[in-house]
Design goal:
It contains 10 helices and 14 strands. The chain is globular, with a radius of gyration of 21 Å. Helix 4 (about 105-115) runs antiparallel to helix 5. The chain has 2 domains: about 5-210, Rossmann fold (3-Layer(aba) Sandwich), CATH 3.40.50.300; about 220-280. The longest helix has 18 residues, at about 160-175. The chain has helices spanning about 40-50, 70-75, 90-100, 105-115, 130-145, 160-175, 190, 210-215, 225-235, 275-280, and strands at about 5-10, 15-25, 30-35, 55-60, 65, 75-80, 150, 180-185, 195-200, 205-210, 220-225, 240-245, 245-255, 265-270. The strands form 3 sheets. The chain has a 6-stranded mixed sheet, sandwiched between helices. Strands 2-1-4-5 form a 4-stranded antiparallel sheet, covered by helices on one side. A 4-stranded antiparallel sheet has the order 12-13-11-14, sandwiched between helices. Bound molecules: adenosine-5'-triphosphate (ATP). Adenosine-5'-triphosphate binds near residues 17, 35, 37, 39 and 41. Adenosine-5'-triphosphate binds next to helix 1. InterPro entries: AAA+_ATPase (IPR003593), ABC_transporter-like_ATP-bd (IPR003439), P-loop_NTPase (IPR027417).
Length: about 290
């Protein structure tokens, strides 16, 4: 069961941002939702959390339409990249409001996290720096009882030390609760090892969906002298290339058949998630 997103379309005026998105989030996994700036990630997450309505399509949780069903809606929490909290409100009061909305809230855990991140919960939200706004929103996201937690750019403004701490806390929370986390981020390199499944969104559609391991198993860099590389890559799905001096490289997605003879001059290695993402989404003018 889990969350099923079926044929979601979203138009802002003439701009068709989402063009028939289909995806599924099953319980107990960590997902990455990746896409370039303006690809439509936040729009999609806002639709899933019923904050905005789609032009077409449905979102269900265990078969119940999320926007019509309060019991389904309270199982979903979206940490937005936008700051939706009143600037003049104290953080403690904002935690109370969250508790009222979600029925319960883990204050012991929130206090522990606040101490770890050196966040004073007596402060007003408007007084926080960009990084501390993210930290506060992350604490809320980790302490609400929702089964599906969507994190939209959770790393916004976090320094390297706080990012490490956040990754650690996220994994610890995941190990203990087996909730589903869906992370939309541009820090692909840092998140790659934490993600189990990935969706790559491009031009308002899902371009790649699957287990990170399976996706990367199909992604290669073929490198060597240009002529040999091009000969070896003939007929493969070449998604990009690069040259460094005499060495030429083709990026390939979709696998390499075993029958091909690899010349001694050519090397074949797997790509990491960030390199694959860059090459799949590189076209100028496309998102
Ligand atoms: N309320 C709105 N009215 C009009 N256009 C909108 C609105 N919200 C989003 N858009 C447009 O939809 C497109 C997708 O925006 P969205 O914020 O979903 O992208 P994103 O993938 O989250 O981008 P980023 O990584 O830069 O945050 C953009 O072109 C944006 O300008």
């Amino acid at each position: 069961m889990g969350i099923e997103v079926k044929n979601i379309k979203k138009r802002f005026g003439k701009h068709e941002v989402l063009r028939g998105i289909n995806l599924e989030f099953v319980p107990g996994k960590i997902y990455g939702l990746l896409g370039r700036n303006g690809a439509g990630k936040s729009t999609l997450l806002n639709i899933i959390a019923a904050r905005i309505f789609p032009t077409a399509g449905t979102v269900t949780l265990d078969g119940k339409t999320v926007c019509d069903d309060d019991s389904a809606l309270e199982q979903i929490y979206l940490m937005s990249e936008r700051n939706l909290y009143p600037e003049g409100e104290r953080l403690k009061k904002l935690l109370k409001t969250t508790e009222l909305l979600y029925g319960s809230f883990d204050y012991t855990y929130a206090n522990k996290l606040a101490a770890e991140f050196s966040l004073d919960l007596n402060q007003k939200f408007g007084k926080l720096s960009t990084g501390y706004r993210s930290i506060f929103k992350l604490i809320v996201a980790l302490c609400v009882p929702a089964r599906y937690v969507f994190l939209d750019e959770p790393d916004l403004g976090l320094d390297a030390n706080h990012r490490e701490l956040f990754y650690r806390e996220l994994m610890e929370n995941y190990a203990q609760t087996h909730r589903t986390f869906i992370v939309s981020t541009h820090l692909i390199g840092e998140f790659a090892n934490l993600l189990e499944r990935v969706f790559i969104i491009k031009n308002g559609q899902i371009l790649v969906a699957g287990e990170v391991e399976d996706v990367l198993a199909k992604a290669y860099l073929i490198a060597g002298p240009k002529e040999d590389v091009c000969k070896y890559s003939a007929g493969l799905n070449v998604i990009g290339h690069e040259s460094l001096g005499n060495i030429y490289g083709n990026y390939v997605f979709g696998g390499v058949d075993d029958e091909r003879h690899l010349p001694d001059t050519v090397s074949l290695e797997h790509l990491d998630l960030q390199k694959l993402f860059i090459n799949l989404t590189n076209e100028k003018g496309e998102k």
